[in-house]
Structure formats: structure tokens, C-alpha cells
Amino acid sequence: PEEALRAARDSLQSLRELETEPGVTSSQDGIVARPFEHIVQEVQALLYCGKAQVALQRGVETARKFLEDALNLLEGLRGSVRQGERLPVAAEDLESEVTLVLVETEMGEPAKAAERAGDARMRFQRDGRKDLEAAALQLLARAHIAQKEPSAGREAAREAIRLRQELNDPKGEKETLQLLVSAELLGNTGSAMQIAKQAVERFKNEGDSRNEALALQTVAKTHIANQEFLRAARISKDAQRILGQLGDTDSEMEMLQTA
Hints:
InterPro entries: TPR-like_helical_dom_sf
Organism: Symbiodinium necroappetens
Shape: elongated
Order of helices and strands: HHHHHHHHHHHH
Protein name: TTC28 protein
Region (Disordered): 1-27
Largest sheet: none
Strand content: under 5%
């Protein structure tokens, strides 16, 4: 992430230096007179800066500033197209990705994240972009879970799972299944346990050891919620063993804390 951030910053600096070169005219808002390609490249650089900052798990405000600058550039570009016309596809795709990463930076303020994720979900739904809608729903589910809103979290997660299944996206479906269990765990430990155990069995049969271990962790957390501490410890050790074999040290450390 450090190298990615450095490279993105260098790219951004180079692009901004181009704006000051002789022969580059400037309109009142500084947007219209610039070539479309330059604007898209700058938005991409800002997006990469934001993503790298998020990956480093520090400087959330800095990441947000990069992403908001990117959205402002795209908004200026939108103002330059004729009424009724849409942005070029490349710019719309960038806008979507920037929006989703921006929601990620707002998870520390889950109410704000939920509002932006909900707005994004509606826009992606109107545009028929099921992949982006599913991603927005996953973020929405996370925000509701962070606010301890099990019903809303469950609803968003179930809808995201449905879309992932329609898209034949098993990786995304598995990620969302973990969210569904987390939402259920807030309100109904019996249902959470049932879903988590089904997930463990499914991942084991598919040979997906990492997701099997993560599902086992959720089963352990459900036992803890039920004050069944010995069972939780035993299951956590099974998950820890699997993650150790996979070399997933970060998840293994989290599992040790559960145990």
C-alpha cells in the first residue's frame, strides 16, 4: 500500500503540473477547457490515492479528501455535457467506484455511510448495474450492522446475496453470507447459528478453507453470545488451525482473540 500510495501521488502531481504548462487554457471553473482524458486520468489518480490510503488503514480524512476531490471533478465534467446527456461510460464507472470507496471511508460514521450507500444503491438499480448495486448493498448491510440494526442489515444482506447469485458470483455471495450471519447475530442467535453452520458445511464441501474458517469463527461468536464458552473455544481452535495452514496470519490473530 505504501508503494501504491507513492505511485498514485506521483501520478497526481504530474497530471496537475500539466495544467500549468503553456497552451493549456482555463475556463472559469477550470474544467471545460481541459481535455476529457486529462480529467479522467486525474480522477483515476485521486481514486488510487484514496484506495491506497484506505488499504493502509490510516488517514481516513485524507482518503476522503482525495475521493471528494475526484467526485467534484466528475461533477464539473457533468456540468459540461448537454442537458439530458450522460457522462461517458469511463467517467460513470469511475464515479461509481469512487462513491463505493468513499462509503468505505465513512464506516466510522455508520449513519452517514448508510445514507450514501443507500443513495448509491438506488442509482445503480436505476442504471441496471446489478454488480454495483450488490456492492452498495453489502456496504449498506455493514453500516446497519455497525448501528446495531439487525432487521435492516439482514434485509440488505439478503438482497445482496440474491443479486450475487443472479450474477453467478460465488465469491461475492460468500462474503455477503458472512454479513448476513453478523446481522442475525445481533437479533437472533438461533438463526445465526443455523446459517453459520450451513455456511461451514457448504465451504467445507467446496474446499474453500478460508471461508470455512471465517464461518467457524462466526459459529464461535454465536456460542459466546449464548454463553457456551467451551464450545466457542473448541471451534475457534479449529478455525485457527485452518488459517494457520493457509498462512493467513491476520485472520489467525483475530481468531486467537476469539478463543
